[in-house]
Amino acid sequence: MKKKTRLLNFLFVVALIAACEAPVENVVGPSSSGLIIGVSALYGGGGLRNDGTSQATIRVEVFTSSAQPVDGAAVTLTTTLGTLGSSSLTTAAGSAVTTLTSSTTTGLASIVATVENASATTAVPIVSF
After folding, report:
1. Would you say residue 4 lies in a domain?
2. Cβ(64)–Cβ(34) under 8 Å?
3. In which element (H, E) is residue 9 found?
4. Is the CB of residue 99 less than 8 Å from the CB of residue 56?
5. What is the pLDDT of residues 84-117, one digit of tens each?
6. How many domains does the chain have?
7. Sign of torsion, CA 101 105 108 112?
8. For residue 45, how far is the Cα from the chain centroid?
9. Residue 14 lies in a domain
10. What are the backbone dihedrals phi and psi of residue 80, each rounded to the nearest 5 degrees, phi first?
11. pTM exceeds cut of 0.85
12. Is 23 a residue whose pLDDT tops 70?
């Protein structure tokens, strides 16, 4: 019985850890020169608190159609709610990171990352707790 309980606990922990991984969302491309872009948002719980200080990490990845990471890709970012740490990024080893700081208004922040003529989108809920 103890072995079964341990196995179930182990499987639960593995599933919980796997669920916390944030895959790159909304992969889009190729762009005019063959680049593919993806963007993901990392935040805890059900979203960011609408306190004007809570932050999410925004991760952008740019790679070629043959899955090679792209160094030096110029990426622009926009958001519909909150404030981005940077609206212009340059990739290193295919990725770049910035932050989204919550607003005091609740809603869904839509973040768009663009490389050349390809754009990918992710969303971050800003909620009152």
Report:
1. no
2. yes
3. helix 2-20
4. yes
5. 999 999 999 999 999 999 999 999 999 999 999 9
6. 1
7. negative
8. 15
9. no
10. -95, -10
11. no
12. no
